[in-house]
Amino acid sequence: MTVQHLLKTAPVTTLLLISFVGLFAFQVYSGVDANEPTTEALLHWGANALPFTMGGEPWRLVTSAFLHIGLMHLLFNSFAMYFFGQVAEPILGSAKFLALFLLAAIGGNLLNSQVTWDAILESGAQPGISAGASGGIMGIGAALLIIALFKISVNGLQLNLKSLIIIMAINLVYGFAVPGIDNAGHIGGAITGIIIAAAFALAYKFDPPIPNAYFDPVSKITYYPSPTDSHKSKVSPWQYLPWAVIALICLGFFGWWQSIHQQIIAALTMIN
Question: Which of 199, 211, 212, 221 is deepest in the core (most CB within 10 A)?
């Protein structure tokens, strides 16, 4: 697929890929090591770290999704975004696709922060640092699983559910097998993607889009939608379901961040 075709069919995917590569290029140009960036450099460029993210810098929940820890990390996530994005964005629509990616990334970072905070309370563990688009990409992959499960077609073709399950399973197993992988970020992103995609799938099933005219090259006949479909009301309550779920997730995530933030403040107050 050419860049022009990708930009036409999946503009948000294209812009996300450009942002990943562009940010990495700026990092390297500024002197950051391309393979082993320091913790200080990653924090400077917006990585997710509990004391900062849950302190006064919640924007790290988003910025860390565009930041990658080394060239191989960037290449792996860029390939995964290209692979999933070119399929998911035309199905969901660019706006919902972008919301899905961002919220899945935030959900993954919040779960990572929650797990880290719980570990600190239980065993005095040290907070780590995380970055990368993996949480958002896992959310997209999980969304495609739901779309395949509901048998929603893509330009007349259906996604292979078994293949998607295998790909997602490999990613999760790899995360648990290799040290240093942000498993909480992956799981949090996947759960967020499942919730948003379930709302989209329900809306699609109860209010399917009006089919377009189709030209059969064999019979040379153009098939048009039935009168019932063509006069179908364009406004349906089901169309608002995905956005309503997205809004509720935003509110829930804000409350989740506030909860961890207040816990940390209370703990620091007790220490002082």
Answer: 199
